[in-house]
Amino acid sequence: MNTVSYRLIVVAALFVTALITANIIAVKLIAVGSDIVLPAAILVFPLSYIIGDILTEVYGFAWARRVIWLGFMCNLLFVFFAWIGGLLPGASFWGGQAAYETILGYTPRLLLASFCGYLIGSFSNAAIMSRMKILTRGRHLWSRTIGSTVIGEGLDSAVFITIAFIGTPAFAPIFIVYHWAAKTMIEVVATPVTYAVVNYLKGVEQVDTFDVGVSLNPFGLAEAKT
Fold it and tell me: Going by C-beta distance under 8 Å and a sequence separation of 6 or more, which residues neighbour residue 130?
């Protein structure tokens, strides 16, 4: 694909928005039943994986790679200025500093966990989508979206929870399973929507990318060939 269409820009914007939104609302914990506690981000974070699947399926791994890095940089920019905003002196009549720090304050450990989980999970998801499309000759889209999510979301959840909480009383391996299962279930439920969007984009863009010979190196921003 030699030119960038406005539809690709829209998909990329939705990806970044879902990612940053998830990081903001993740501070709220919601109860699922009597024993399971999950972050509110569980509702929106899987959307970034669904959009990542669409990017890879329609536009190919090279574009998915660029958008994943774009999401990383946008998230980093958001976190940096949220931190700066917290350091600035508040107005004498403003009493929201504690709330600001609760919602937008990030410890270095949580930031490291979030960034590592995102990069490892997102690139794994895109790479598996890319290679499975070649192996399946473009058929059985559901097998690629669900299969890549099982691995990508699993790695994301395992890396994030392990780095963020290991060695603390809050760490429990079962939380990894809860996160992984919930995110995967959302991907499965959204499969008909994924099919509709993929078919629409392939039709209007007149593109259906197969990554034959495309490098899966996450640091190769050019459309390099192996």
Answer: 56, 60, 61, 64, 211, 214, 216
Strand ranges in 29-171 using DSSP code E only, listed in sequence order:
29-32, 36-39
Residues whose CB is less than 8 angstroms from the CB of residue 31 and which lie 6 or more positions away in sequence, other chains included: 37
CA distance linking residue 59 with residue 52, whole number of Å: 10
β 29-32/36-39 pair status: antiparallel
**Cα-based distances in Å from 121 to 13, 111, 164, 196, 202:** 19, 15, 15, 24, 25
- Which of 155, 162, 160, 188 lies closest to 23 in space, CA to CA? 160
Q: How many angstroms separate the CA atoms of 47 and 123, rounded? A: 15
Q: How many residues does the chain have?
A: 226
* Helix and strand element counts for the chain (H, E): 8, 2
Q: Are 132 and 144 in contact (CB under 8 A)?
A: yes
Model confidence at 2: pLDDT above 60: no
- Does this model's pTM top 0.85? My answer is yes
- What is the distance, to the nearest Å, from the Cα of residue 115 to the centroid of all Cα atoms in its chain? 10
**CA-wise closest residue to 190 among 49, 57, 78:** 49
Nearest alpha carbon to residue 22 among 160, 158, 124, 151: 160
For the stretch 63-86, pLDDT in tens is: 999 999 999 999 999 999 999 999
Here the tokens at position 29 are 């914990």
| Residue 113 · residue 159 · CB < 8 Å | yes
8 A C-beta contact, residue 129 and residue 57: yes
